[in-house]
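User: quick one
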Amino acid sequence: MSERKLELERIVVVEECPKCGVMLKRKFSEGDYVGMPGGTCRFCGSRMYVKMIYKEHG
Amino acid sequence: MPLGLAISTSTYAYLAYYLILPIAYIALLTVYGTKIQFWFMMSDVSKALLELRRIRDKSLDKLNHHIETTVNDPVNRARLLGMLEYFAVSPVDLDPVGIISKLKHIVEVHDNRMKTEIADILGRKDPILVGRTLGHVSAAAALNYLYKLVNHIVSLTKRYSSLALLQQLYAIMPLLIKQGKAVLEFIDAVDKGVPIGDGIGPLSVGLLMRGKPKIMIAEDTMAAITTIDGRRLVLIKAEGPASNLGKLDDAVRKTRLLFGKVSAIVTIDAMLRLESEKSGETARGLGVAIGGIGVERFRVEETATKEGIPLYAITVKESYMEAISIMGRKIAEAVVDVYNMLHRILEEKTEEDATVIVVGVGNTLGIGQ
Ligand SMILES: [Zn+2]
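Assistant: Done. Structure below.
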């Protein structure tokens, strides 16, 4: 189980704001997929979206 | 007298060292050399076979764990395990006329049967869960078959003491183990619903589709329209984020019927890289970049040839291992280069107001639209 948790922590989700182009990296959690709506942008308040999901080292 | 004895002893020793021993040595190696080589190679191959079995067992453990968490009924659990032995027989190719449609039919029937059977066992039609289960089953089945096949050859090699067979096995064994490990990583990706390297095509197209109205243009396949550089783009990819490949050939044919004149078809796909090439490098070329057994590529080529539509391809280089395991950073970031190439193709090869089909080829696991 802890191996699985470690694995998950290697995976990064990149969210982008469609309006101002700000990008934000966070850890992957199950259920995330590319294109899904993300959090709100800290700069302009618009809804961000998941642009990429990848493993950091590889 | 003691002196003479000493001389004769050293003469024998001389003979033994420089004549008899080398002759015995050469004779031994001539007769038993291949035997010795056989033993050494066999011990290595046997170790590798054990490794393959370990990999296979790991995939079965993961499958069992998945079954325990998703299927309650023991009869259905057994049914799911029974699917490891499902197979499809390829059509007769003695008379190759029309073999593509036969092949397409068999592949479709096989895929549909797997999916409906799994949905039935799960008691749910949720495409993400069905895709995940199918991924588990097909990966475990592939590893199980790989192990059984190699085990079969090792047994034959032992029975007939065939060095020729053993040498071939010895040469490819490291490659087989590498592939086996890659399949294990694929199971991990499927379990978590994370994009794999092969998903770079759907990723590129899926991001362009975001926020656009979409239609299901063929089974498990989505299409959307957007405008880039004054050209009308019909974007096509498999339906995500479940593990799907889509029916890209059917989608292209239907798009052609729906939109009339098409000025170009651009396919975006992952491509196996050579050892000297870097992962995530992009390349531009002509033709249809769709892998697999060739049915989809054939049918897109056929449509294009009939209508005289130019075919362009954009590929992202990656290894087989990278293609079926969790997408790496370099591959994901190649999406920027892919867009640059797409812009260049649109500008150089098509007129303004043209209609262009852009297909994102690959497994769309973890990639929506
Ligand atoms: Zn913003």
